[in-house]
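look at this record:
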Amino acid sequence: MDIVNSATGTLQKRTHARYWIVVMLFIVTSFNYGDRATLSIAGSAMSQDIGLDSVGLGYIFSAFSWAYVIGQIPGGWLLDRFGSKRVYFWSIFIWSLFTFMQGFVDLFSGSAIVISLFALRFLVGLAEAPSFPGNSRIVAAWFPAQERGTAVSIFNSAQYFATVIFAPIMAWLTHAIGWAHVFWFMGGLGIIISFVWLKVIHNPNDHPGVNQAELDHMKAGGALIDMDQVSTKKDVVKGEKFKQIKQLISSRMMLGIYIGQYCINALTYFFITWFPVYLVQDRGMTILKAGFVASVPAICGFIGGVLGGIISDYLMRKTNSLTFARKAPIVVGMLLSMSMIICNYVETEWIVIGVMALAFFGKGLGALGWAVMADTAPKEISGLSGGLFNMFGNISGIVTPIAIGYIIATTGSFSGALVYVGIHALLAVISYLFIVGDIKRIELKPTK
């Protein structure tokens, strides 16, 4: 749609700068998940070199999430205080630097290797903490409600794209020249991407490629185009943030969303930590084959992820019900994800991959938590609200890798692990159907 320029009386064609914004979010999120997955690809070779058992590897896997959870509320506060562009740049640069440094842990010996690896994974998690709240803030600022589901699904589907692109490369590097090169490759590219970010990302009102027609379109659909201008200039009364957080966690809707995200992330962390190990240890594949095979379900996850957002926005336009538009893909997707339990009852390799592909597709279809967050977060504390949401969700990143490690150590197989993850998919369905209720933006009550 075009608008009439009031100064010249001529039609002004609407620009599409917001599309390039979401492309950049997709690229950065691909590296985000690629760096998280480095250890899952290099883990088998590393654990043999440094003598890690399944429980020890589970704790190393969880190191990222301990820090990621701890950093969510401070990361959200930094985003609200200093804006998405600056905070996100430093986030990308620092997490990439610590990823790069993991390639040097073999300079140590004995327990010092384990300690240094845990510490570096912890620091990567801390540096990545502002990333998804930052994504949510940027989408809320740039996209009207009827386009938000698609925008979120595009950057969120990058987690699967990262597996498709990076898993085969990292597997080849591990197989051909050693696991250390996985960290050097991913970390080095990430540092370059951080400087590209500075050139591409701007606030809507400051972007050189956006015109008034696009700004008006965004604003009319509920985009918070002046978010950073307002938030960075506002002085906050001491103790006000705590009271605002209390309002969020006392909301039944938000509680249900937090529980749902915790359960959905159990699937996420299984796929980015234990899934390649499952293919190697339980299905007898080589690490090289596992890296390539893992990309097949990931492609299905990517397709499901993009479709989830497109379907949600289509339902929004057709029904004008935000609640139905967001919940329907989540419920259907999580029910499909439960199919992974079937793998416990089949031996044929291609059937296992096919079932995992269906589960991956379902997980992608239902991964609309960040769209829900962009729909519900109070504009005054969008970053903080996203950080709180991500904190609850990523507690699952601490629990899931460790729990699966103990299940494998106790039972000697992955059967219980697949049931554990499948049950979480069912709990996500229950939470969205019976706890969340209507999905709507929270209006903060004045604090005294």
